[in-house]
Amino acid sequence: MARPDGRTPNELRPVTITRKWLRHAEGSALVEFGDTRVLCAATVEDGVPRWRRGTGEGWVTAEYAMLPRSTDTRGARESVKGKIGGRTHEISRLIGRSLRAVIDFKAMGEHTITLDCDVLQADGGTRTAAITGAYVALVDAVKYLRKHRNLKRDPLTGSVSAVSVGIVQGQSRLDLNYLEDSVAQTDMNVVVTGDGQFIEVQGTAEGAPFDRSSLDGLLDLAVDGCVRLTEIQKKALVG
Amino acid sequence: MARPDGRTPNELRPVTITRKWLRHAEGSALVEFGDTRVLCAATVEDGVPRWRRGTGEGWVTAEYAMLPRSTDTRGARESVKGKIGGRTHEISRLIGRSLRAVIDFKAMGEHTITLDCDVLQADGGTRTAAITGAYVALVDAVKYLRKHRNLKRDPLTGSVSAVSVGIVQGQSRLDLNYLEDSVAQTDMNVVVTGDGQFIEVQGTAEGAPFDRSSLDGLLDLAVDGCVRLTEIQKKALVG
Amino acid sequence: MARPDGRTPNELRPVTITRKWLRHAEGSALVEFGDTRVLCAATVEDGVPRWRRGTGEGWVTAEYAMLPRSTDTRGARESVKGKIGGRTHEISRLIGRSLRAVIDFKAMGEHTITLDCDVLQADGGTRTAAITGAYVALVDAVKYLRKHRNLKRDPLTGSVSAVSVGIVQGQSRLDLNYLEDSVAQTDMNVVVTGDGQFIEVQGTAEGAPFDRSSLDGLLDLAVDGCVRLTEIQKKALVG
Amino acid sequence: MARPDGRTPNELRPVTITRKWLRHAEGSALVEFGDTRVLCAATVEDGVPRWRRGTGEGWVTAEYAMLPRSTDTRGARESVKGKIGGRTHEISRLIGRSLRAVIDFKAMGEHTITLDCDVLQADGGTRTAAITGAYVALVDAVKYLRKHRNLKRDPLTGSVSAVSVGIVQGQSRLDLNYLEDSVAQTDMNVVVTGDGQFIEVQGTAEGAPFDRSSLDGLLDLAVDGCVRLTEIQKKALVG
Amino acid sequence: MARPDGRTPNELRPVTITRKWLRHAEGSALVEFGDTRVLCAATVEDGVPRWRRGTGEGWVTAEYAMLPRSTDTRGARESVKGKIGGRTHEISRLIGRSLRAVIDFKAMGEHTITLDCDVLQADGGTRTAAITGAYVALVDAVKYLRKHRNLKRDPLTGSVSAVSVGIVQGQSRLDLNYLEDSVAQTDMNVVVTGDGQFIEVQGTAEGAPFDRSSLDGLLDLAVDGCVRLTEIQKKALVG
Amino acid sequence: MARPDGRTPNELRPVTITRKWLRHAEGSALVEFGDTRVLCAATVEDGVPRWRRGTGEGWVTAEYAMLPRSTDTRGARESVKGKIGGRTHEISRLIGRSLRAVIDFKAMGEHTITLDCDVLQADGGTRTAAITGAYVALVDAVKYLRKHRNLKRDPLTGSVSAVSVGIVQGQSRLDLNYLEDSVAQTDMNVVVTGDGQFIEVQGTAEGAPFDRSSLDGLLDLAVDGCVRLTEIQKKALVG
Lengths: 239, 239, 239, 239, 239, 239
Known about the structure:
The structure is a homohexamer of 239-residue chains. Chain A is of the alpha+beta class and 239 residues long.
C-alpha cells in the first residue's frame, strides 16, 4: 500500500517553479512536480482571433505539447505526423479554459496571451503541472500588458492551480506519478481557484466505475493539494 | 426563470431511440433528445489495432462528427479542412472511454467494435445523446459478435447512459438545450452506469467558478436523469 | 434475367422525398431511392467565393460525402484520413454543375447556396439520388433568398433530376441498385432538366466497350426515368 | 464563325507523338495537340495494390498533373498546397479507366503499370491528349513486361484514343483549344477504342442544356476524330 | 580511374540551354547537362509576399520538383503524399537564394518572379543544372518586367551559374553524373557569379571527412566549370 | 567594429554542456552557446528503417525543432501548421549527416539512434550548437548500445563539433549571435571532426558574393573554434 516514492496519500511531490526561465517571453516558468518538468511561456500579442475582433475584449489561449523523448519511449513528433492527436488537443483546450476562468477579457482590451506549455520530461500529471506553471507565466505577461498597453484595471481576477488525484489499489492519492497513474482505477484532474472554487473537475473510471463517496474523497484531496500549490505559486511570484 | 421550452428543471426533453435504423450496420440507433438527432452505427470487425494484437483482448472505439448543416450556421467539413478539430477528438475519446467501461475485453476476443456517432441535427447535448444511443447500437453489435464468432461469455458488463446538466441563471437544470447551454455558467457532462455509478464526470466553469454544493446538486440531477434514460434504453432494446 | 428486386427493366425503385427534414437549413430533403438514403441540406450565405466577388453574380456549390457505415463494410472517414478521395471530389463537382445549370446567377445577387449531400445509407445511385434531392432543397433555399434578400426575379430557370442506367447481363436497366451496379458492363449517369434536355451524360464501359445503339437505348431509358422523378419532385414541393 | 486558328469544324490540331522521350521509363511519349504538350511515362512494377493481391491479376493506374506554369497564369503546386484538387483526381481516374478498358488483367499477372501524364504546356484538351499519348507509352510498357516477365499472352486487347468535342457559337467542333473550350456551351470528352466503340462519354452543359440531336452530332464528330488519332498512334508505334 | 562516360576529370557533360521552350511563361529554358533535363519557367506577378509589402522592394523565389519517373525507379508524387520532402525544400531554397544574389530588389519594385524548376529527367546535378537554367529564364522575366512595368534601372546585377564537383575514387571531378554521385566520397555544389565570386559553397563528406587541400582542389575545379557555363548562358541569351 | 557582446573576432560565447539532463533518454545534453539553449536527447531503438533492413548495419538520424517562444516573436508550431518547414528539414538533415560521419554502421548492428534537438531558446547558431551537443548525447547512447546489445567494437570513429562563422561589417567573426547573424554579409556553418577534418562546409552570400580569400579566412576561424569546442565536449564527457 506504500506509494512508490514513499509519500503519504495526501502528499505532493517536491514542486518547484523557476520564474522567468526564458529571456524572450513576456512571462515564463519552468515548473517541476517531481520528475515532471514543463516549460511554460506566455506571449503577448496585439489583436485577437478573427471571431473576436471588434468586441474590445482580449483572449487567452494555450498550446500543450510533449518533446519526443520526454517519455520513457520516444514518441513521434506531431509536426512530423502532420497532425495533432486527440490527447494534445484536449489538454491544450483544458489549459486555455482553466486560465480564462481568472481573466476579465474586457480589462485586457483586444490583446491575446498565448501560453505554450512544452513538456520537457514527463512523469505523470503533466497537464496539471502545466496549468500551475502557466498561471505564473500568465501573471508576468499580464503585468507586461498592463505596463506597455496602459490598461486601466487588472485583467487578473484570481489565481488558479491544478492537481491530479486518483484511486490506486483502493486508496485515494494526491498527485499521482506515472507509475501510479498507469495503474489507477479512477483518475481525476481538478482545477481550483486560489479561493477554493472549482474551474474544472474531470473524473474518469479507468477500470471499474466509481461511486459518489469515492468522488467526494478525491475532491477533498484535490482541493487540499491546490491550497498548497497556491502557496508555492505565491512564493515564486514574489520579487 | 422558466426554461425556454417550458420544462421543469429536472425534466428531460422527449427522448426517442429508433433501433436498427440502418440496414448494413451490425447495430444502429437514431437517438433524439428533443431536436438533437444523432445516428449511431456499430461496426464489428475481426482483429484489433496493432498495439493490442496478440493479447487475446478486443477493443471498442468511437468516432463522433457533425454534419455541416446540423447546426444553425453551416460549419466547414473536417474532411475539407483536412484535419479534425480538438472538440471532435475530445468527444470521440469520451464516447469510446464511456462504452469501454462496460465491456469485458477478454470476453470479446480479438475483435473491434467501432461506434460512429454522426450528428444529423444539433440542439445541445450531442455528446451525451451519442453515448446514450451508441450503447443501444453496441448491444446489438455485441449480440452479433456473440452469435457469429461464438463467444463463450457476454462481453457486456453493464449499461451506460449520459446526460448534461448545468447552472443557468443560477438554477441547476437537467438536459440543457442549445439555448440554455450557450448561457450556462457551469456545464457538466455525466456518464453513469445502469446501476448508478460514475464513469465520467466533466464539469466546467464557463463563467464564474462553482462551489462544492453546486457540484453536488448537479451530480444528483444527472444521476436521476440517467435512471430515466436507462429505462428508455431498455424499452428500445426489447423485441 | 430478372432484376434482384423483381423490377421491370424500366422501373424505378420506390422513391420518396421528405422535404424540410432539418430544422436549421434554409432548404432540406431526405431523399430515398429504395435503400439509398441521402440527406440534402441547402445553406444560404451572403457573399461569394473570392474569385467571383464584385461580379454581382451568385454561386451554387455542393459537397457530397458518405457516412462511414452507409455501406456494407465500414469506410474510413475522409476527415480522419485528412484528405478527400477522388470519387468524393468528382461527385461533389457533378452535383454542383448539375444544379448550376438551372440557376440564373445574375438574379441571385452575390449570395452563395451550398448543397450538402450526405449519404446515410448506400445501395447504388447515391449521386443521382443526391442531385434529385438537392434540387428540392435548392428550391426552398431559393425561396428563402428571394424573400429575405428581396430578389427582383427568380434565380431558378428550370428543374433538374438524375438517374443511373446501365447494361446488366446484356439488358439495359433503369436505376441500378448496388448489386446490379457492381456487375454492370456499362454504367451511365444522366442528368436531365424538367423539359427533357441534357445537363450531363457520363457513360463508362466497366467491362467491354459499348456501341452507339447501346448508348442510344440507355439515354432513352434515362430520359424516361427523369420524367417520373420530375413528377415526384413536384409533389414533394407542393404545400 | 471561323475557328480562332482557322481550322474547319471537323479538323484536328497538328498532332505529334514522340515515342521514348524518356530514358528511364519502360514506355514514354511526348504528345502534342497543337500547343498542348503532355509528357506520358509508363512505369512497370512487380506486385499490385493491397486490395488486389493474391488474385493473379495485374493493375493499370494513372496520375495526371499540370506543371505550375503550363497555363497562362501560374497555378499553385498541389504538393505545396498539400492536397490534390478535384479536377486532378477526376482526370487521373478517367485516364486510368480508359486504359484499363483495353487490358486483360489476367494476362498481366500481378504487375502494375502506372501512367504519369504531366502537362508541360496547356492549350485545351489536356486530358484527351494524355489518354492518346499514354496509350503509346502503355504499349511499350506492356512489351517490356511481356519480355522481362515472360507473359504467355498479350495483355493488350485493343487500342484507345480520345478527343474533345463541343458546341461553340452554335457550331459543333472537334478538338477545342483553350480559347474555344472557355466559351463552349457544351463540352464533351469521348474515349474510343481502335475499332470505334465507346469507353467513356462525358458531356456537360456549360451554359444551356443540350438536346439529343446536338449530342448525336458531337458523338459523330468525336468518333471520326479518333479514327485519325488511331492512325497517328500506329505510325508512332512503328519501328 | 576513367570516368563512366569517358570524360576527363575537369570536363563538363554536353550542356544545352533551349531558351523560350514554353509559350505562356515570361521566361523559360529547357536546360540539359547530359541526360539531366530540367524545365525552368519564370513567372512575373505583381505584388510581393505579405511580409515584404510596403517596402517598395521585389522578391525572387523558386520551386524545385521532380517528375515521378524522372529517375530510374518511380518516386511517389509529393502532391499525393500530401507533403514536400526535406530534399525538395532544401533545393528550392538553394535555387531561390542563388538567384536573389544577383538581383537588386529596389530596382524591381513590388513584383515577384517565381522560378519553377521541374526535373523531367535526372542523371545527377539536377540542382546545379536548375540554377544554371533558371538564370536564363530569369533574364527574360526581368526583361519583361522592365518593359511592361517601366522599371527605371536594371534589377539584374550579375549572372549566376552552378556546378557540382566531387571526389570519386580519390580523384577530384567536375559535373558528376548520377553514377559518380552515388559513389562519391565528397560531394560539393558551388554557385558562382559571372565574375567568379562565390554565392554558395556546400560541401559534404559522404564517406570519410575531407581535408583542406581536397576542399581547395574542388573549389578550383568548380570555379573553372562555371566560367564555361557562363559562356553557354551568354550564347543562349543572344538573339 | 566592436562585437555587440564585446567579444574579440575569434572568441566563442560562453559554452556549457550539461550532460544527462534528461532521465529517460539513453543519452542527453543541454547545450548552451551564450543565450542559445538546445536540449539534445538520444534514443536507442532496435531495428532500422525499412530501406536498411537486412543489411546488418545501423542508422543514426536527427530531428531539429524550435519551441514556439524560443525566439523573440512567437512562431507558429509546425504541428499546428500540419507541415514541417524547409528550414527545419534542412537543419535536421544536416545534423543527421554530421553525426553519421563519425559512425561505423556495421559496428552498430541493426539499431537506430535518433537525436532530438529541441531549441528552448534561440540566439543564433542553433544548428551548430545542436550538432555540438548532440555528439555528447550520442556518445552516451552508443555506450548504452555497446553495453546492452553487446557490440563487439566501438561504432564511434571520431568526434564532431560545429560552429558558425561570418563576415559582419567586413570583419570575419566566430560564433555569431542572432544580432550579428541577421546583418552578416556572408554566413558559414562548418562541421569539423576532432582531428580537424571537414564534414560539412556551408557558406552562403547573404548580401554580396564573397571571394576566395574571405572563404579561406572563415574556414581558418571555424577550424580553430572547433578545436576549443572539442575540448569542452571532452570535459563534459568525463566522469
